[in-house]
Amino acid sequence: MSYGIGAALQAAVYQRLRASSALDALIGDAIYDAVPPGTVTGTYVSLGPEDVRDASDVTGDGAEHDFVVSVVTDAAGFQSAKAVAAAVSDQLVDATLILARGRLVGLWFLRAKARRVETGETRRIDLTFRARVEG
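RE: above sequence
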């Protein structure tokens, strides 16, 4: 096992989210691999941390990537953030992603955590997904 497929998986997830008409209708192009410097207002999606474990077996090399996609908003309440989180989940769960390196075996939703951050004016939903890759 290696971490070699990590960048390809991240690029494919990012492209899948950017291509979503549902997300475009909700937040436009506010989908970031790296959040721009300074204060970002409104609602946006950001790719976040990732934990990777070896999942090699007798058939070949593989890994499980648990990665976070965050929805962050300064809108009042959680309703708009939850609509965006649902659109993210709809785009990724059981998605067929073509990777530049390796192969995606499956992609599943693991958990979500919704909370207020900072002074309570910002809301954040962290969605954790698991991707099984081979390569």
